[in-house]
Amino acid sequence: MSEKKYQQLVQRVQRAINSPGAQSKHYVEIKRQPEDEAGDWTRMLSDLGTVENVTLTTMDDNAEHVQITWNPEESMA
After folding, report:
1. Which of 11, 13, 39, 58 is 20 to 30 A from 28 via CA?
2. Please, which contacts does 60-63 make with residues 24 or more away whose CB atoms are closer than 8 Å?
């Protein structure tokens, strides 16, 4: 498992979360890409799952399509 590949995955997901559209809707859907290692994907979802006021909802049986939602009001408290 390459730390560099993991960081690239995390950065891609952060860009999606920080996009203006996602920020106005307070959710974003992400999909595992062919270049994403299964272990990296699982680790990234696990790390995201520990963030307060963030909810992960799997959209398929393999958790390769995930909706991330957050509550900005709660996170500001």
Report:
1. 39
2. none
β 27-31/54-58 pair status: unpaired
Whether the CB-CB separation of 43 and 6 falls below 8 Å is answered with yes
Q: Residue 18 pLDDT more than 90?
A: yes
Q: How far, in Å, CA of 70 to CA of 54, rounded?
A: 4
* DSSP letter for each residue of 9-51: HHHHHHHHHHSHHHHHHTEEEEE--TTS-HHHHHHHHHHHHTS
C-alpha 77/C-alpha 65 separation (Å) is 30
Question: Measuring CA to CA, how many Å separate 70 from each of 7, 20, 36, 41?
Answer: 22, 14, 24, 19
CA dihedral for 45, 36, 63, 42, sign (positive or negative): negative
